[in-house]
Amino acid sequence: MWKRRRPAIQIKSADQIELMRAAGLVVGRTLERLREAVKPGLTTADLDDIAEDSIRSEGATPSFKGYHGFPATICTSVNEEIVHGIPSTAKVLRDGDLISIDCGAIVEGWHGDAAVTVAVGEITAEQQRLMDVCEESLWHGLAAGRAGARLSDISHAIETYIRSQGSYGVVEGYTGHGIGTEMHMDPAVPNHGPPGQGPELVPGMCFAVEPMVNLGTRSTWELEDGWTVVTEDGRHSAHFEHTFAVTDDGPWVLTALDGGRGRIAELLDGGVRPTG
User: Fold this and answer.
1) Which of 36, 72, 107, 150 could form a disulfide with 22 if both were Cys (CB 3.0 to 4.6 A apart)?
2) How does residue 276 score in pLDDT terms, banded at 50, 70 and 90?
């Protein structure tokens, strides 16, 4: 009887990772422009226009537009919308909203993918805490992505941090992923699970890590548009994402403008270590 093989994970050369870094910087700069633009009264379609102009002005191509029929350059998910929200002229941002913005770009055939959640005007302490926990869990996952670790060490680090911060819903049906010559590649990178499982991480592997954290239940459902995923209980959600490369010198966060090395070093110096 044949044994089922795991899907191969694409290994990139140093030059190929440099191209992914170029794509990642386009994404990072675009997200900074969008973060600065967010304000009450703006529509999510306005943000989509800014994103497309930003990406194309740098000679890159939006990853999302036309991907399996997706009609826009970015995903804009507001409040109870977790991921894959479609920008619209009818979706007007209001004071107190949270908006998750997911963005991807292609440079010479190589992809970068990242997401941020942004406060619109004044938000509550509970909303701010949700964003902080989600973003910090991302960095714990990235710090676990070192050569010699196992893939599930990333997942375990994300979940362990979130669970340590209170009763939050960790979304399970949507995951991070491999990335490179395609936006979504094997393997899936869940945001939960035990350590020490899956393939060993080696230099040249690249992954997009993206925790999604809800104020209430982890349960989700998809709207009739076939894209937008929302929380089942209608409570708010946050979503952060970065693309990183496994290197001999540790995780290199390709979509972080500073490469993320300082933040990861802080976590490791503070005692956070890959488990497994």
Assistant:
1) 107
2) very low
How deeply is 157 buried, as exposed, middle or buried, from its count of CB atoms within 10 A (0-12, 13-18, 19+)?
A: buried
User: The pTM is what?
Assistant: 0.94
Rg for the chain (alpha carbons), in Å? 18
Calpha distance 85→131 (Å, rounded): 18
Q: Does position 213 have pLDDT exceeding 70, yes or no?
A: yes
- Which residue's structure tokens are 């107190």? 96
Quick: pLDDT tens for 166-191: 999 999 999 999 999 999 999 999 99
Place of tokens 């979504």: 184
Report which DSSP code applies to 68: G
Contacts of 273 (CB under 8 A, 6+ apart): none
Phi, psi values for residue 269, rounded to 5°: -65, -25
Query: What is the pLDDT at residue 4?
Result: 46
Strand positions, DSSP E, 53-152: 61-62, 74-78, 81-83, 98-107, 110-119
Identify the CA nearest to 73 among candidates 82, 83, 81, 61: 61
Averaged pLDDT for residues 76-85: 98
Packing angle of the helix pair 125-143, 151-164 (nearest 10 deg): 150
d(CA 254, CA 240): 14
Residue 234 CB: number of other CB atoms within 10 A?
11
Which residue from 275, 257, 82, 245 is spatially nearest to 161, judged by alpha carbons? Answer: 275
Say if strands 169-170 and 212-214 run parallel, antiparallel, or are unpaired: antiparallel
The region that residue 275 occupies, defined by phi over 0 for left and psi between -120 and 50 for alpha, beta otherwise, is beta
